[in-house]
Amino acid sequence: MTExxxxxxxxxxxxxxxxxxxxxxxxxxxxxxxxxxGENGAGKSTLIKVLTGVxxxxxxxxxxAGRRIAPATPKDAEHCGISTVYQEVNLVxxxxxxxxxxxxxxxxxxxxxxxxxxxxxxxxxxxxxxxxCDIDAELGSLSVALQQMVAIARALDxxxxxxxxxxxxxxxxxxxxxxxxxxxxxxxxxxxxxxxxTHFLEQVYAVTDRITVLRNGELVGEYATTGLPRxxxxxxxxxxxxxxxxxxxxxxxxxSVEQVGPPxxxxxxxxxxxxxxxxxxxxxxxxxxGLAGLLGSGRTxxxxxxxxxxxADAGEVRVRGTSVKLAxxxxxxxxxxxxxxxxRKIEGILPNLSVRENLVFALQAKQGAWRVLGRAExxxxxxxxxxxxxxxxxxxxxxxRNLSGGNQQKxxxxxxxxxxxxxxxxxxxxxxxxxxxxxxxxxxxxxxRADGLAVLFISSEIEEVVRNSTRVVVLRERRxxxxxxxxxxxxxxxxxxxxxxxxxHEPPDSDFSPRRDTK
Amino acid sequence: MKTSSRxxxxxxxxxxxxxxxxxxxxxxxxxxxxxxxxxxxxxxTAVTGITAVGMTLVIFSGGIDxxxxxxxxxxxxxxxxxxxxxxxxxxxxxxxxxxxxxxxxAFMGTLIQVFKQPPFLVTLAGMFLARxxxxxxxxxxxxxxxxxxxxxxxxxxxxxGGLRLTVAALAVFAALAVGYVIAQHxxxxxxxLALGGSEQSALLMGLxxxxxxxxxxxxxxxxxxxxxxxxxxxxxxxxxxxxxxxELDAIAIVVIGGTLLxxxxxxxxxxxxxxxxxxxxxxxxLFDGRLSPAWGRIVVGLLLLGFILLQRIMLRGVSRxxxxxxxxxx
Amino acid sequence: xxxxxxxxxxxxxxxxxLAGILALVLANxxxxxxxxxxxxxxxxxxxxGSLIDIFSQGSRCMLVALGMTLVIAVSGVDxxxxSIMAIGxxxxxxxxxxxxxxxxxxxxxALAVTAAAGLTSGLLVAGLRLQPIVATLIxxxxxxxxxxxxxxxxxxxxxxxxxxxxxxxxxxxxPFSAVLVAVLYLIVNTVLRRSALGLxxxxxxxxxxxxxxxGLAVARVKCLAYVxxxxxxGLAGLLAASNIxAADPxxxxxxxxxxxxxxxxxxGTALTGGRFSLLGSWIGALLLQTLTVTMYNLGVAxxxxxxxxxxxxxxxxxxxxxxxxxxxxGLWRKPV
Lengths: 519, 330, 336
What we know:
CATH architecture of chain C: Orthogonal Bundle
CATH class of the largest domain in chain A: Alpha Beta
Number of strands of chain C: 6
Number of domains of chain C: 1
CATH architecture of the largest domain in chain A: 3-Layer(aba) Sandwich
Structural class of chain A: alpha/beta
Shape of chain A: globular
Largest interface: B-C, 47 and 48 residues
Order of helices and strands of chain C: HHEEHHHHHEHEEHHHHEHHHH
CATH class of chain C: Mainly Alpha
Distance between the termini of chain C: 17 Å
Oligomer: heterotrimer
Strand content of chain C: under 5%
Number of strands of chain A: 22
Radius of gyration of chain C: 20 Å
Helix content of chain A: 25-40%
Number of helices of chain C: 16
Largest sheet of chain C: 2 strands, antiparallel
Strand content of chain A: 15-25%
CATH topology of chain C: ABC transporter involved in vitamin B12 uptake, BtuC
Distance between the termini of chain A: 26 Å
CATH topology of the largest domain in chain A: Rossmann fold
Helix content of chain C: over 70%
Radius of gyration of chain A: 25 Å
Strand order of the largest sheet of chain C: 1-2
Low-confidence stretches of chain A: 242-256, 502-519
């Protein structure tokens, strides 16, 4: 094979306290579609940002078509021939398609526009992708898929050699994905190199030629797509080789307690368009239900539905046997639910308020403005939880933003525990916190279960799910694809389900079904 | 709904509302239904109309400028004082007034762009600054007696057919024409819409966001100063208290014209109809004589509310189908 | 260490406006070359003097700033306060003069209507999710029209001793309006800090999403802030009408929105919402009135007063902006 189109060698990038990339190699050939895969924190997006000039790397070298480049800004990268299309369409929805393609490089003289030439160029750019679309339509009125195509058309209008597609399919339906793939294949035929970031494995096998896997900021390996079975791919992404040693069965550490009577929470056919396909789920007191699935499998969407943040389009929810409507987080909190969101910064902490205020907030909100927790009561709660959860803080009145991520997470956990919930939903409670704090949080979860709470535990670390759950429900591509009771399954089985091996209800295969490569 | 009709719905609504209002007024009041009244609509709302053109551009960019009324007041008294007390030729006086206006706009734009201060606050301060400066020059109104100025005040172009276009009316048409060209046919104008539609996208597309934003405030304040000169010509005098509350009328005209107050969406033609609607309401109240002029403000306020709600509903429709990401800032 | 010290000093909400007031008082004393500015005389059992005037004349701005503080704390802004003041004054005036309503009823009716006006803004912001500027702009435009309509466009003179007392009376030797406003500040502060409302307001402004996720009815809290703002503006309108013994729908409360926002921002409540300081806003309004009186004292025509006000608010905003803070922080660190 000839020299690759793009060669990134030994790329390193560190942020305060974190090594995001450590000596990563990445290369893309002309005329191939190359998948860049990895779970959260693997370093995919950092690598992309280094490539597209958003970040400057600390170490390593980049060359494109044999020429050393060091893009300092996205514009710089574009000039070098690297064009990027992001998951969120970075166009202007209120302007026309033609304008969006041409903004910033409109033909014309002295600042005046030549609309005819502008529309001609735009039409040509779309024609190259063989897209049929009214160039005078307002961009925002198009489907996300078409907007995505317009973004690609805009990106390609320059002398692009390498096209980076950063999770372009996240909000597309199957037909739209197929259309996107058609365009990608056409561009591959023209000799472009395409980097495709996604977390849908089906799509990886449907369209890519080679795969690079990252984990924890390091390169795991580069593989030909046809030579890498799906199960090993998932193993590489999650950092587990299959076979090695048998993983402990589910619930080994926690044991299992059966409960009789109606479940605390029962959902039947709960669904939301673009969120999750109809889903049944029971949650009982004294059990920890793990929700496993790859990124984008609908884990967080499920949690949000249960907690009333998003409204369900269909389905029924019964709490303690009675049918209820959960229209807001407030409703859910009143039912005795609690929810620690995965996005601590945006959906969790009140950054400028104190640890004390953050900690008592949910309880106070539940009680209303007038049944006030006295200062002494608040301090007692703070003392209790700071000791019980070992929260490291200068004091209850320190602003929460000064605490480390793990301690912020514990405060948020304490916020909900103070409300004495019966059901607690933990969405990635251990994300982005150090190892010691992780172990502590796992202990707390076990204790909650022992105290008789129902726990819904979401994590992308499969070991963690296996270790902590008494029962695991597996989601894949926004569907429930399996359930494993205590002692029934191992991490290997879970992974197989997550990857799409043994499935309870096989979803109807789409027309771009992957070339299966199980031997 | 077809995309093009959906997109232009506010513009159609504006045109229809104008037609209905004008016909109603024509039926209700004798002599209302004439080209003379139609032209007078422009003469009488000239000052507000000219500022509305600049305001349209500012609102395109997602900003707002509350200082234009004060700039009008300052310009009239500044020009009048230069001409009357210091014997400066009107053209030179007007030019320096426009330059001062532009300087104020550039200053405000810089505060907004560089120091990330909210536009409403900066321009509210700008309003105090300009109004205070106007009163500083004089608290009394000053008549302008320079022959050139007097000639302009009385001048009207009569193309025939009983049409009489005063300097003020001609100025509005000129402002609208220039505004239309800027909005539709220049990079600057399209950059404004892109900036107002999604600042993040505009930055990622490599558009000159800073220069565009500072530029539009500069342009708008210079336009407001021009409106002030037209006001001085129209009234033949300089009055430091002129244009109090004018900024609200200008904003109302822009929004009634179908331009989205949060930016990124709109059309200069809408502002044209907005001026007509505003003028029709004012004239109808004048013709009626029984109704309190306060109704003018209330009707304008209600139209404002109606259009804002209409846009809100439309955007909801769009964002439900699209990703809606960039509409969230509303 | 010096950075940390500078930081805490920088963040203390009331130090800057207090320093400003001191500087202005000093400027007066130096200009007069006497302590006349500070002297307070007693006559008829009432206190008189420049300082007393500052408190009584500043009471309206303090009042509007009270409501504005809450609105800004929930990341909003209320541009309609001036128009609402005009409505409050006009309504009370008409009820008192043309309908000879009892004083209590007129005042209650005016306050109820202005609070409802605030609720309208609140619903537009919290319910329809309009930008606060956009939502309150509507009422800013239409409100003055409504006020004019109430009085038929006239300035209505009011001659009712009870009503005049509001803006001109004295209570235990002090101007009644100043006492009323101070008491209201105390009450509101106590209620907010003793109940959980203060926490809710700060939380809603600090991180709206997180507050909603934690089970707070954010929309209700926001509405409440706007209702409070409408109520305070209405009361300020009554004080203004009482003070000049007339309700002027055209000029009452003009430019009050900027004065109030200024007082709030100077008082240490950030325009981005979250933590608020009522004491800070009160002192901020005091600073503004001291500035006005000082300029009068220094012989600056009252008409010119907006200029230094505008310069001051621009200066304060620049000082608080991220960019200049970083820049100043850089100066701090550099060894001079």
